[in-house]
Every structure is written in C-alpha cells, then in structure tokens.
Structure prediction request, 270 residues.
Amino acid sequence: MAKRVGIIGCGTIGGQLASAVDAGQVKNAILVSLFDISRGSAQQLSSKLQSAPTAYDDFEGFMSQECDIAVEAASPDAARKFAGPVLGAGRDLLIMSVGALADRELLASLQALKGRIYVPTGAIAGIDAIRAVRHLLEAVTLTTTKAPKALTGAPFFETSSIKLEEIKEKTLIYDGPAADAVKKFPANVNVAAVLSLAGIGFDKTMVRIVADPASTTNQHEITATGSFGKFQFTVNNVPSPGNPKTSYLAVLSAIECLRSVCDGGMRIGS
Prediction:
C-alpha cells in the first residue's frame, strides 16, 4: 500500500521533493498534501504537479489531511514548531532541518512521541562508517568550504566583524563545536548535525567553516579518528539549483531516504 506523503515547506527543497514524488521517482509513495506559511506558495506548487496535492497555508488544515509521513523542508524554526504535533499524531517525520535537533530537550521530547523520525544523510558521505564505530570515536572534525555568497544571512555575521563581501581569498571564519555552529549557520551546516547524531554528539564534534571566493562547489571534509584507526571523506557538491546554501546532494539524499522509509531509513536512536 502506498505511503501518503505531506510536505511542510514549499521552497527550493520542498519543491524538488514534491516534483520527485509526483514524477514517480519515489516508489510506494503518493503526495497528498503541501503546507507553507507563505500564502499561495503551496497552491502555486500544487498547480504544477500532476497529482494536485491539497495545498494549505494553515497548519491545522494540513494536519486534518491524512498522511503517513510528513517531510519537513522549511527551516529549523519550522522543525521546532511542527515536529511535535506531527509525531504526536502518530505520523512519521523526515526532517531536513536537522540542526534543530541540537536542542537536547527538543530531541528527547520528540523521541518520546508516537511517530518515528527519519534523517537523510544529507550532503555528506561516510555516515554508515561513522555509525559503525561511534563507540570507538575519539575525535570528529567537519570542514565545510563554500563561496561567501552561500553563507549570506547566517546569524554568525550579526556579531562578527567579518564582512563576506571583503573576503578575497580562502578564509577560515569559524572553528568550534557543532552545537554552536548549527545555531550560527543554521542554513549551512545541517551536515554537522547529521554527523553529530551519527557520531559523538554536538559538543564533541568540531566544525570549521571556510569561505573561499574561488569555490564553485560546497565542499565537506570529514576526519574521524579513534581506536579503530582513521576515516577521511571529502565530498564536493554542486549547489542546489535556486539555493546556493544547499547542496543538490541534500535533496537527492532526502529522495533516497523516502524510498527506504518502509525499511526503516536512518532512524534516530535505532
């Protein structure tokens, strides 16, 4: 029986996910509903889809539509606001804004609810290997390199003296724990959240963010060491069409996660 899918957030990522399900790229899934707080966004997206899912600009209406799994593709704030009601209603949730789960109290409260949480691997590789040795890990570092324009709007710059428009060469602009990075760069380092959940946690996982004017890809390099030895993975991702802050691989991994939901996907706590 096909899984009924609802999508929260009809921007670049939500739109690409909706198109993938609508086009039959996700087997055993049917898109039934869309929700976006921006009036008209969900309706505009729905009008482009053959399945014509019901469009809502109010969350209560979205929740009144029966679905088996909701996909959060909006923002960390949306994840914090809507994840609880979705899971509490016994529906599963695929969460794209993984950085929201850096909040320990929120994560614990969500895990206690009926529904299951699925996390796509996002724009990085090697997560299965990290999970396999998580009990042996001693240090994990993520170095993310992006063009300055891909970092525009991050809360980090509200208190920093660094001016993105003045960066002319490869520059390290942040070096610290993932717990802090996901707050200061919420639209840029979901990969840090995925890595932290799979490995040694948000406080021990270290993040380095580099702005490089010459960069044409979003690069993520993971280095992990422990009694098992050493892992090192580097991924150079093409930015997602229409949103340079997000790697195209992030969308593709969400599509793949949806495909595998019937088999469990990547479930927090599993």
